[in-house]
Automatic annotation (TrEMBL), chains A, B, C, D, E, F:
Name of the protein described by the UniProt record: Hfq-related domain-containing protein
Origin: domain of life: Bacteria
UniProt-listed Gene3D superfamilies: 2.30.30.100
Pfam families associated with the record: Hfq_1
Hfq-related domain residues: 8-68
InterPro entries documented for this protein: Hfq_1 (IPR053840), LSM_dom_sf (IPR010920)
Organism this protein belongs to: Phormidium nigroviride PCC 7112
Phylogenetic classification of the source organism: Bacteria, Bacillati, Cyanobacteriota, Cyanophyceae, Oscillatoriophycideae
Coiled-coil positions: none
Length: 70, 70, 70, 70, 70, 70
């Protein structure tokens, strides 16, 4: 995503998850399934706070999908 | 897909699946095969509603193929 | 492939397979080997008709190679 | 990341890890989990000093995630 | 490779393999190791003639490396 | 890397390995670990001379990391 298009539905959906402190699961191309809440996003990465509040800075190209958790 | 080219056959086909609430299968580079109907698309993601109506926001670069299901 | 360069040898070869309804095999980065004939192409996807005439819309970045089948 | 956008949260977070000589783990799409501290970053790579102070120049597109280590 | 930069060392090396009908091996991200001689190249694909003279159109992003064979 | 930015730390580090005929290891997304010395680089590829002085032309997007070897 070269330009960060804040108007995109996908960016807005992540923004709503951040605002609502929504629990999510993020599946990576490595097969890892990371759980936690999204702390921030920019055009290169999505930062996830895992259950121990550790910041996991995930590269967008490595993400397969994001879905709400519970 | 930097610019969202709504005129592309591939974008139009997805749009028709959305309009017709078509059941589809989406194969990911992880090997996951996700089933459901497509809720929306933008130039970065395709959002799939799975059988439990959960929104799975799939990154386009992680998609291998999309095909109708049944 | 940002701009769809119809003059490229690779695009022209696919176009000839479409015109000649040529049977092909498409190997994906997932390891899948899909067989059928190519229905259309655009700068994001190649649409393959499998033996049951189902449209499989394949993302170009997920393609490893395309070769004639028989 | 074509242009190196130093203002991005993701770039600033890495910059803080460099300044603080923070121990991190970097998960790669190969499944490798590399540990050490980040030495420098540019728009193509992140250079990690492993425990034996060897410079491991990691391609950004190969990174799944970066997280603090302990 | 958005623009086809014919002056690049990598493009020129492939061009020399084409001219000299050099036998090569091409390793793909799928793990496939394809052998044959390169027939043509453009900015999206490299076309390999396998031992049975079948045209295998390989996507450049799927290539790990190219090396002479024997 | 669309434009070849020779001023980048990552490009300069590779250039120093070339000048010093440094032995390196290059880990690929396929899991291959290639050893040798870097012969040249351009914006698409890095060419490695393996122990038998064979030129292995490696696609940059397929590289996970480069590190000195011994």
């Amino acid at each position: 995503m070269s330009e960060f298009e804040t108007g995109l539905p996908s960016v807005r959906l992540i923004q709503s998850y951040i605002k609502d402190k929504k629990q999510v699961e993020i599946k990576l191309l490595t097969g890892d399934l990371l759980a936690g809440r999204i702390f921030w996003q920019d055009n290169s990465c999505i930062c996830l706070l895992d259950p121990s509040e550790t910041q996991i800075m995930i590269s967008r190209p490595a993400i397969a999908y994001v879905k709400p958790n519970g």
